[in-house]
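Q: Sequence in, structure out?
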Amino acid sequence: MAYLGELISIGVAFSWTATALLSEFGSKRMGNLTLNVLRMSLALLFSLVLFGVVTGDMLPLSASPEAIGWMLLSGVVGYVIGDFCLFQCYIIIGSRFGQLFMTLAPLSAALMAWVTLGQQMTKMSIVAMLVTLSGISISVLGRGEHHKVSLRLPLNGVLFAIAAAMCQGIGLVLSKIGMDHYQVTDGMPAWLVPFSANFYRCIAGVIGFSLLLSLRKKKAPSLGGGRGEVSLRSVFHDKKGLSVATATTIFGPFVGVGFSLMAVQYTAAGIASTLMAMTPIIILLPSYWLFHEKITWRAVIGAVISVVGVSLFFLGG
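A: Exactly. Output:
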């Protein structure tokens, strides 16, 4: 199917829109690390069930040692470091501005893919990326804000957001390298490979976030904003918190990330990451419906420019 990777990437952007809104609420309610330990654990559980239903074996057995190693490294970079920074920026500056800075991820992915995979982008693809990123920036910055973002946001929140974007782009390319080492075996459909790959990323996530949580308990409870970390035991008595964590897991590290890894199988990492960066556009309407935030003319123009940018990917493919 033509442009399958691009279409999957757009679907991932919708999934990450829900994740961004839920993650900001969950991080402020339970704490960054507590939420991440919970959602990584749930993602592993969901993956085991998926493998059992599809293949009859609850463990992914087709990954080579090289593939597992790359996926674990991707999990450390993309989940442990990247998501820690992302969720922390949600607490400090909110998911809206956090997603704005995540538009830096495609640039990071494209540069990493150029260095490690030798992937080249056409001139039209580069133009499309720039147009899409410009539209995203105009849209988010235009939501009733009259000052430059750099002057209105806390510096630590901005630094966390930039680090998160860099780690997402690098982690995506590391995952691409890892999946290139996969050998599909009998009884395991090719579409299941990204979910198998993400299984190992989640293992790294559970271990990494658990270690960070144990260290955090011995130090200050918060790096800025939020209520600090709550205990995992208390979370199990919080029905709303558990519901948010479960939904965040489904839209984030299970479905969202699984399909994001699938996307890079069918298109270049820089293009996939750019289309997945459309979340700041898609989040406009949900924010209006849920929080009654006004959509300005700058936001509408930015959305139109972003759609033009996406169309250039198809024309220039």
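Residues 142-147, 220-225 have pLDDT under 50 and may be disordered.
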